[in-house]
Write a structure and sequence with these properties.
Number of helices of chain A: 13
CATH superfamily of the largest domain in chain A: MetI-like
Strand content of chain B: under 5%
CATH superfamily of the largest domain in chain B: MetI-like
Order of helices and strands of chain A: HHHHHHHHHHHEEHH
Helix content of chain B: over 70%
Low-confidence stretches of chain A: 1-17, 311-315
CATH topology of the largest domain in chain B: MetI-like fold
CATH class of the largest domain in chain B: Mainly Alpha
CATH topology of the largest domain in chain A: MetI-like fold
Shape of chain B: flat
Number of helices of chain B: 14
Shape of chain A: flat
Distance between the termini of chain A: 46 Å
CATH architecture of the largest domain in chain A: Orthogonal Bundle
Oligomer: heterodimer
Radius of gyration of chain A: 26 Å
């Protein structure tokens, strides 16, 4: 009604302001686009500066060849992240199921919030807790038992560390740190399970667990996998918790409970960088570049799985 | 009905039909719980010392196993599996809460010793063992986080606006992909990047608050983009179309209609992003470093920050170590309190600014 009444005045007012609004649109659109392009520039800059600072490692004199230096570090990085993932994934799936299908609906949101709090604890606090509280407990009551009873498995060969600052402690703390990521993504997909799938299963007489196995888990599989890969990416790059807890050595071993542990790339940088100078700094930056590439591929795979899985589920 | 059905079917009876099979009653469940706690207690009673961890672990395992066995006898295999799954899933949640409780408890308990006025008013200048504080680190954290926020928020917000309101085609797709890559950059790598950038400007060994802020910007911007993007996409298209229909230009539609509608979610996202970067240690360790005294100039010189301060007080506590350790835990507690305030603030913001009628 008002629109039609105002109509005669509209063309004039539009015309008078069109110059300004066009300019405004141009500026605003330009700034937005510029910000978007700046993202590409920043990322290119990250890669370029790291490469530029890493190059002297390969041209200059170092005490040992680069592959030999970075080898044990790559092993330690992947090994710790892998262990953390193996521990965290089943727990995360169970917790996600608990909040999505088991907990009373009114409790589900606050419980999910508790899990999010786990992700908000700064990593340096996990480091202090891991080395000050968790490691001594494990060293006192768990590692000796593992060595005595399961020592035949190479993982627990020992000799058990008395300080508890071992690869296993690191893996457990990393598992706590990546669990909220895996849980959050799994919970999302579990909640998206088509209601009809669930009800069809229950109507056929399935118990709750059978319903979950038949409809929720198959539907959420790709979500769980991509969440796990994102968690893996986080575990690969986690620095302070590892740097504070681990007692490192320059070796490659699968033994997880002794004092001699392979270090990770990130923790090695954090420990050595403040006291390094000259070519050693370049070498640390080169290892950082390796870490960057490693996490890049893990995250890329995670996203690919997520995309493939979700489109498949819809079709 | 239930009363008669509770009795386990006699061995000689014909296989019960599923509709009339027994039920796992409350009494049986309580019996299993009591049994589990008792068996758990047996693991420490002989030695005389209460071992809470042992007790809990053994009880939970026995409870899961006991539930399965009893239910299997009373109800059959399928229901037993169902109950086992419930028990396992629930105890998994309990297991996950343990570290959270333990972390909070430890930090409060050990950090309390140094939560005094000195800690918040003095720096570490000239402090050898006793006393000293984190004033310089708190100031450093505030300065660096403020710079990070001032850079990341407009940068991230405009990028999100571009992706949602303008972006189409290859540029938008590649920006989205690169934001994903940026989200996955390990924090220490962001620190190395900022260091490599500032080496060009200030020479080898460069340390400054600004370089720390640049490192954190690399980490915070993608988080801001993701959060704002999600919120902008939630704004119903009808609102935009109504605005266009009234002849409002696009940029004004975005500023006056789209952003105000989504402002609650965006502010929540920004607050959570700040909570995340304020605890970052590794990138600041290699860029801002550590200092013993207050440095208010972000452009040059080392600048202490709370997380890095906590790390160094823990790793190099001095003699006797207890003083340094107390400072480290107090710094950790301060950090946790800041994060908790930001976290709660985000929830409050989300509640109060939520647009009415949407």
């Amino acid at each position: 009604m008002t629109a039609t009444l105002d109509a005669p005045q509209q063309p004039g007012s539009l015309k008078s302001s069109s110059g300004v609004s066009k300019l405004g649109d141009k500026i605003f659109g330009g700034v937005s686009k510029g910000a978007g392009i700046l993202i590409l520039v920043v990322l290119a800059a990250v890669a370029a500066f790291l490469i530029a600072q890493a190059i002297p490692t390969f041209t200059g004199e170092t005490d040992k060849p680069f592959p030999q230096y970075v080898g044990p570090l790559i092993f330690g990085t992947i090994w710790s992240a892998f262990l953390a993932l193996v521990i965290a994934t089943p727990l995360a799936v169970a917790v996600a199921l608990f909040t999505s299908h088991y907990a009373p609906r009114r409790l589900a949101a606050p419980l999910g919030w508790f899990i999010d709090l786990l992700a908000a604890v700064p990593s340096v606090v996990y480091g202090l807790w891991g080395s000050g509280v968790f490691a001594p407990v494990l060293a006192r009551s768990v590692y000796p038992w593992l060595e005595d009873n399961l020592g035949f498995i190479p993982l627990f060969k020992g000799p058990a560390s008395t300080s508890g600052r071992t690869m296993m402690t690191v893996a457990l703390v990393l598992a706590v740190m990546i669990l909220p990521i895996i849980t959050a993504i799994s919970r999302e997909v579990f909640l998206q399970t088509p209601r009809l799938h669930e009800e069809a299963s229950l109507a056929l007489g399935a118990t709750r667990w059978e319903m979950i196995r038949q409809s929720v888990l198959p539907y959420g599989r790709s979500g769980v996998i991509s969440g796990a890969m994102l968690g893996l990416g986080r575990a690969l790059g986690e620095t302070m918790a590892v740097a504070i807890i681990l007692s490192p050595a320059n070796i490659i071993t699968f033994n997880t409970i002794s004092n001699q542990n392979p270090n990770t790339i990130a923790a090695n940088i954090a420990l050595k960088f403040p006291e390094s100078a000259g070519i050693n700094v370049n070498r640390l930056i080169a290892t950082g570049l390796v870490l960057f590439v490693l996490t890049f591929f893990v995250n890329a795979i995670a996203r690919r799985i997520a995309r493939a899985g979700f489109s498949g589920a819809e079709g | 009905m239930t009363a008669t059905a509770t009795r386990p079917p006699a061995a000689a009876a014909p296989a019960p039909s599923p509709l009339t099979s027994g039920r796992f009653t409350l009494v049986q469940r309580l019996a299993v719980v009591a049994g589990a706690i008792l068996v758990g207690a047996l693991t420490w009673i002989p030695s005389g010392a209460v071992n809470w961890a042992h007790w809990a672990v053994v009880s939970v395992v026995v409870y899961c196993a006991g539930t399965y066995v009893v239910s299997r006898i009373v109800e059959g295999r399928r229901h037993a599996l169902d109950r086992l799954a419930t028990a396992v899933v629930t105890s998994a949640f309990g297991v996950v809460l343990l570290p959270l409780i333990s972390v909070v408890w430890t930090v409060v308990q050990r950090g309390w010793a140094r939560m005094d006025a000195d800690f918040f008013t003095t720096s570490m200048r000239g402090v050898v063992s006793e006393g000293g504080g984190a004033w310089h680190a708190i100031v450093g954290t505030l300065i660096i986080t403020a710079i990070t926020t001032v850079i990341s928020v407009p940068f991230g917000l405009f990028t999100a606006v571009y992706l949602v309101e303008y972006g189409q085609g290859r540029l938008a797709r590649s920006i989205t992909a690169m934001v994903d890559v940026m989200t996955g950059i390990p924090s220490i790598v962001a620190g190395l990047f900022a260091y490599a950038l500032f080496v060009l400007w200030q020479g080898p060994g460069a340390r400054s608050g600004l370089s720390g802020a640049i490192a954190l910007t690399v980490l915070m911007t993608p988080v801001v983009i993701r959060a704002s993007e999600e919120m902008l996409r939630l704004v119903p298209n009808e609102l935009r179309e109504a605005s266009y229909a009234l002849g409002v230009p696009k940029w004004k539609t975005i500023v006056k209609v789209v952003l105000p509608t989504s402002i609650a979610g965006i502010l929540t996202g920004i607050t959570l992003a700040i909570a995340r970067v304020i605890g970052e240690t590794a990138p600041l360790l290699v860029t801002a470093g550590i200092a013993a005294e207050t440095n208010l100039n972000p452009f040059s010189g080392r600048m202490a920050t709370l997380p890095v301060f906590a790390y160094y007080q823990y790793a190099q506590p001095g003699v006797p170590p207890q003083n340094g350790l107390d400072r480290a835990w107090a710094a950790a507690l301060t950090l946790m309190i800041i994060v908790a305030i930001l976290f709660t603030g985000a929830r409050v913001l989300a509640r109060f600014l939520r647009p009415k009628g949407l």
